[in-house]
UniProtKB/TrEMBL annotation:
Residues 30-88 form the RNA polymerase sigma-70 region domain. It comes from Streptacidiphilus alkalitolerans. The keyword DNA-binding applies. This is RNA polymerase sigma factor. Residues 124-174 form the RNA polymerase sigma factor 70 region 4 type domain. Transmembrane segments: none annotated. It comes from the Bacteria. The keyword Metal-binding does not apply. It holds the Pfam family Sigma70_r2. NCBIfam families: sigma70-ECF. Belongs to the sigma-70 factor family. ECF subfamily.
Amino acid sequence: MTEDPAPDARSQAASTDFVDFVVKSTDRLWPLALREAGSDFHTAEDILQDTFLRMFRLWDRISLREGSLHTYARKAVRSAVVDLYRRNGCGRVEPSASLPDAVARTTYGSIPGAEELSDLSVLALEAIERLPPQQQRAVTLLYLHEMPIADVAEAMGVKPESVGRYLRAATKTLETMLVSAGKDVAR
C-alpha cells in the first residue's frame, strides 16, 4: 500500500507560507514585542519566538481563517507577554524615574538601525513612553505599527474620532516635551 504524497505537499506549502509570513511580519511585530517587553530586547525576542512557535503549531487552522493573520499575531504577542510574565514571575518590577545614560544608550543602541537614531529620535521614544496609556497606545499603533486609524480604533475599543483626539493630545504633549528639552520641532 502506498502513501498519498498530498499531505507532504500540503505541509511543505504550509511551511513555506509560514516562513513567508514570519519574514514579512517580523518587522511589524518587533516594535509591539519591544514595547510590551518594556524595551528589553532579549525579552522581546523571546516573546516573538514564542508567538511564532504558537502560530506554527496552529498554522493549518489559522491560515485558513477569515481575517488578518497580522491581527492574530498581535493578539498572540500580547498573550505571549502575559504567559511569559506569569511563567517567570516577572510581574513585580520596581519602577525608576529614569534610566542611567549608559543603560539608555545600550537599550536603544540594540534597535536594528539604532546607530542612525539621532538624539531627537531617542528623546522622542522616551517621550512616547511618558504619555498617558491611551495616547501612548494610539501613537504606537498608528505610527510604529502603521495601522490605519479604523484598525487602531478597533484595537483600542474606541471610535475613530476618539483615536484622533488621543493623537492630537499626544502631539501637543510630545511637542511640549521636546521643546522643553531644547529640541527644535518642525511640523
